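Field reference: "sequence" (input) and "structure" (output). Example, Protein-lysine N-methyltransferase efm5:
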Amino acid sequence: MDALDDGDDVPQLPADTLRLLDEFATEKNTAAQKFKDLKLQSEGDFAGRLSMEGFSEDWGQVLGKTFVYYDLDHPLQLPAELKNKFDRIICDPPFLSDDCQTKTALTVRYLSKSWAADNGTSDGLRFISCTGERVGEIIARLYGKTGVKTTTFEPAHSKGLSNEFRCYANFECSAWTWRGA
């Protein structure tokens, strides 16, 4: 007779594992509720500042129907209605390789209304990329026509970063100036 059939020896997870699973579920639910509350607030007259710290990495489940699946290996396989629709783009490429940076640039170009810097006219692209310092040269090549430069803003992560990161943008603002200017 199988041990599971007699009902006495049902396998159970250790208490510490159950506690960790419960903590994870609570954190996930809290983050989802936090995002939902902020979204409702922002739909009104929200003038506060948002931070990425409050959200998990599972954007498909936090964002629901507004999420668009993206595959880095197929950077142009996006809905046609998104092509040339955006004049403000922020990207955070997942890898520091030339291949990843190039594919991200293809996607940015696809999504952009314009491939020229804004220059204060509000007609061009305002672009920000937070990525590794070591890919600065390829960023300059890929986004050079948009006027991108390294800024004084230094991205930080609540859990720390193992690489030197930089913020590249094609405009200055109150949060940063051009690095070395």
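Residues 15-43 form the longest helix (29 residues).
The first strand starts at residue 88 and ends at 91.
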